[in-house]
Amino acid sequence: MFSSLPQDWHTRVTRRHFFGASAGALGAAALGSLxxxxxxxxxxxxxxxxxxxxxRAKRIIYLFQSGGPSQVDLFDYKPELxxxxxEQLPDSVRAGQRLTGMSAQQSSIPLAGSPFTFAQxxxxxxxxxxxxxxxxxIVDDVCFVRTMFxxxxxxxxxxxxxxxxxxxxxxxxxxxxxxxxxxxxxxxxPSFIVLVSANQAGQPLYSRLWGSGFLDSRxxxxxxxxxxxxxxxxxxxxxxxxxxxxxxxEKLNELNQSQYQAELDPEIESRIAQYExxxxxxxxxxxxxxxxxxxxxxxxxxxxxxxxxxxxxxxCLLARRLAERGVRFIQLYHQGWDQHDSLPGGIRNQCAxxxxxxxxxxLDLKQRGLLDDTLVVWGGxxxxxxxxxxxxxxxxxxxxxxxxxxxxxxxxGGVKPGMCYGQTDDFGYNIATPGGGAAQPxxxxxxxxxxxxxxxxxxxxxxxxxxxxxxxxxxxGRRFRLTDVHGHVxxxxxx
Length: 495
Prior knowledge:
Blueprint: H1 9-21, H2 23-34, H3 37-43, E1 59-65, H4 79-83, H5 91-94, E2 118-121, E3 126-129, E4 142-149, H6 155-164, H7 174-182, E5 192-196, E6 222-224, H8 242-263, H9 266-289, H10 296-302, H11 312-324, E7 329-334, H12 343-367, E8 374-379, E9 383-384, E10 401-402, E11 406-411, E12 419-421, E13 423-424, E14 431-432, E15 438-439, E16 451-452, H13 453-463, E17 472-475, E18 478-481
Parallel strand pairs: 1-7, 1-8, 4-12, 4-16, 5-6, 5-7
Antiparallel strand pairs: 2-3, 4-11, 8-11, 9-10, 13-14, 14-15, 17-18
Helix pairs in contact: 2-3, 8-9, 11-12
């Protein structure tokens, strides 16, 4: 019967069974590598999902503004840029830096001051444009990082870099890394949930942005949609009752277990776990996504769009509900920030859709006591240029991609509130060094005041109690991590 099998078949089966039986021990070792010795000892008899004691945050809500919001029209006030509106970008400022193919061939590169009015707000004195009236209420709860930078100059590699730590597709997303490293806080909901604003035009979003890459598929994000069925194929078909679904699932699990015993493929166990999660989600998802039990003042806080399923405002309100229920990583995407032309009207519309709900989420979390251990992140894949793409006119000018410096903001979860971190030059084109002059930082070095994408990722992981250098996975002979081989924790951002 076994004559046709390879001679080393029994050896390979034994090896497979060894690794299969050792999975729990390997998981404990992986958790221990992320903790201090005292934390590892405490975790020895605790669930693998137990958060390290040093964690300041338990969860992240990431408000990703896809397309690249213009920092010089929202957060980074530049009166000198306004004064020199229409003049040519000085060669000494550009310093030979590359431009995208969309503006590199322009015969004229005129500076474009912001057409919007700026003022200072709160005890922190943060500058905001008149496009963000609701942000005025949260400036003292927020840390504005004005000196983010990235090497990526086009949308796809730039957004992939922020979401996965690499410009090349195929790596695990940040939410997948956190699910892998920290586990779930609610057995009845996925630990990583994705919400995308409905009916928004803009740069395309791909499911790989919330994928698990080479990690187990159980760690990938689950996208919730607006409408009657938030998760595709979750509801029972007509004529199938819950008890019938349970009986079918048990038989299917028996078959999968039999296959696993024969092959010891870990993806089979993941498939079983996902089937079981889907069954539990049939009850938990409708309860979590039903906003009918929210009081009237919540809809007033988040704005009128919060009553419309699938809008950014409704997704922000849903994000708070998911945070309350222990979802580890909640990723929101809002497209449309890519204003290569007609910027004044386009960015005004974007802010009208997002300003109130973004601020409301921070205020809502704060009044519920959730902001202390919830980290909120707001930002896009890069910023916009301080010069005009195309002809400079009051109504029709645009701004090109600008990776050299741009703004993101953080709130809660151990971040220092009421702070504006870093400075850019008078044109909003380069990061300014603390001693004056322009810095040209790279990801391979730590430049005071400058925050690389990997620095941000390392800092977020630190706030969750994770050493970014230790959260790693060996694949094809190499140890991979979210921050690749770079990244520094920006201690100045920590409360």
